[in-house]
Amino acid sequence: MKYLITDTFLKNEKVDIAVKDGLILEIGQNLGEQFANDGFEIVSGKETIALQGLVDLHTHLREPGKEDSETVETGSMAAAKGGFTAVSAMANTSPVADTAGVVEQVFRLGQECGLTDVYPIGAVTKGLLGKELAELGAMADSVAQVRVFSDDGNCVSDALVMRRALEYIKKFNGVIAQHAQDPTLTVDAQMNEGIISSQLGLKGWPAVAEEAIIARDVLLTDHVQSRLHVCHLTTAGGVEIIRWAKARGINVTAEVTPHHLLLTDELAKSYDPIFKVNPPLRTERDVMALREGLADGTIDIIATDHAPHPAESKECEWQYAAFGMLGLETALSVVWQTMIDTKLMDLEELEKRMSTNPARIGQYHRQGQPIIKGAPANLTLFAPNKSWKVDRDLVASKSKNTPFHGMHFGGSVVATFFNGRKTWVAK
Q1: Which of 99, 269, 297, 382 is 20 to 30 A from 32 via CA?
Q2: Which positions are catalytic?
Q3: Hey, what domains does the chain have and what are their CATH numbers?
């Protein structure tokens, strides 16, 4: 497949980008005369910015076992629409991705789909039960070559089990991605603990439940000299702990979701379970601290925590509703509004947080590459002035539980190229 992307901006310079055989063939001005008559399909990049293909280190694709919510194919379609060229499939499937066989199944489903790279994340413990280590070595040695392990949704709350996991993964330079939630402090918790939870009569989820696990785990990581990644950071205190750990040279990275950069617990006043998520939406103070932490590099990456659910799991009373939100298709628009439009980050930092850094943490070697001649053609074209309104009935995901339904954003993804193939073009 051959494409000529015309008149797009790359590092503030208007250029054409020629793509052939999965690679960037040439970058320059006025390449039309050279390539237009050589069988290259013209893709107009007018009023767009060319970015490295986005990489998501935290995606729920639900397959195998929960295909009523999402499949590898529909999740990959949502990823392509959102500008992603790689996603990391979380382990809480059925059966759980705690063996080489299951992660290889997910990996092959991604290859068959061909819309994004799908990298399985292996479970830390068997069945996500937090008691006995899963087949970490076998998953690392499998065709999928798993390097990231997580019981996401289930905190590895036993300190000894967490220590053993951190020790084990050192032999193949793996990383434990921890869902920081002390289960003893969050029994029946429904939303952020604070004034609003008291007003609504909903069981509160204290910030310390997250911060206590983060503090413990960075100390364990330092003790055994391993690698830790903190999933979906949500509190100001958590940001400070990560900042302290990095200042001490502890090998820890952290992520924040787009929805935690924009939405607050005020939305729970609607009692609409679309805003019920794990970890919960926090306060405006926490949102500002997360933005600051992302801007100064304390938080390394943005990850969607894309969590699709069927309608019956969300269209019910709050306390019975499932936790989770869609995130892939809206991620870049939300981040642009919260971090670029506010001048907190520039384009170079955006690419680090949404492409280079997640690819480095996950060891996804053909992702996160700079847009240069000879590099893999994983590209996202973003139109910063093309406004759009989120409509849940138009999402590519199999589920419809987007918290941004009806919201307007000032910029949108207009095209995605994965491995030199056009996987999404806006109409």
Answers
A1: 382
A2: 305
A3: 2-49+375-425 (2.30.40.10), 52-362 (3.20.20.140)
Q: What are phi and psi of 417, to 5 degrees?
A: -120, 120
Q: What is the pTM of this model?
A: 0.97
- Please, what's the b/e burial string for 198-229 (b: 16 or more CB within 10 A of its CB; e: otherwise)? eebebebbbbebbbbbbbbbbebbbebebbbb
* 231 neighbors 176 (Cβ within 8 angstroms): no
Who contacts 225 (Cβ-Cβ below 8 Å, separation ≥6)? Answer: 170, 251
